[in-house]
Fold this sequence. Notes:
Blueprint: E1 4-10, H1 15-22, E2 29-36, H2 43-49, E3 54-56, H3 59-62, H4 65-74, E4 79-82, H5 91-96, E5 101-105, H6 120-128, E6 133-140, E7 150-157, H7 164-187
Parallel strand pairs: 1-2, 1-4, 2-3, 4-5
Antiparallel strand pairs: 5-6, 6-7
Helix pairs in contact: 1-7, 6-7
The chain binds 5-O-phosphono-beta-D-ribofuranosylamine.
Amino acid sequence: MQPKKVAIFISGRGSNAQALIEQQNNKAYQVVLVLGSHEKSEIPNFCLKHSVPFVSVNKDHFFNEDFLLKTLEEFQIELICLAGFLWKIPTFLTQKYPNKILNIHPSLLPKYGGKGMYGIKIHEAVIANQEKESGVTIHWVNEDYDKGEILFQAKIFIDKNDTPQRLADKILALEHQSYTQVLESVCK
Ligand code: GRF
C-alpha cells in the first residue's frame, strides 16, 4: 500500500508538524506539503532539511478556491492535518475533503473549544475553573470550529501546582505522541 499523501496547515511554531514529519517512517503516510500562514517559525528551515515543500500563504491565497484547490491537487493531497492553524477552514475545502481534514486541539472537547479558544487562553480557562483533568482531542473538521466528529481523546490529571504554562507543556508533549498514532490509524 502506498503511503497517504498528507498536507499539514500551520499558523504558529509548528512543533506538531515537526513531530508528524519526524515520525513518518511508518509508511502509512507521507507529509508532502506544509502550508503556513506565516513564516516566523523555524518550520521553513526544518522542511528544507527534511525535503518537504513549504508554501507560505496569505489570506488572499488561502481563501481563493482556485488557488488552494489547485495547490492541493498539484501535490495529490489525500489528507490534511491542521496543527495550530488559526484561520477558519472554508466550506469549499470541507466539501472537497469530507472526513479527510483532521485537527488537534489541546483540551477535552467540547469543553474549551470554539472561536477564540486557542493557545494559552485554553489552559488559563481550565486552571481558572479548577478542572481536575484536561487533555488532547483529535477530530474531523467540518464547517464549525472544533465541532467535527471526535476520533481520539487522551486525558491528563491536573496537579495543584500546574500553571497554565506547565499544563500547556504537558499537553503539547501528549499531542506529539498522539497525532502520529491517530493519523496512522486513519490511513490504514
Ligand atoms: C497545539 O497546542 C495544537 O493543539 C493547537 O495549537 C497548538 C499548536 O502548536 N491547535 P504547534 O504550532 O504545533 O507547536
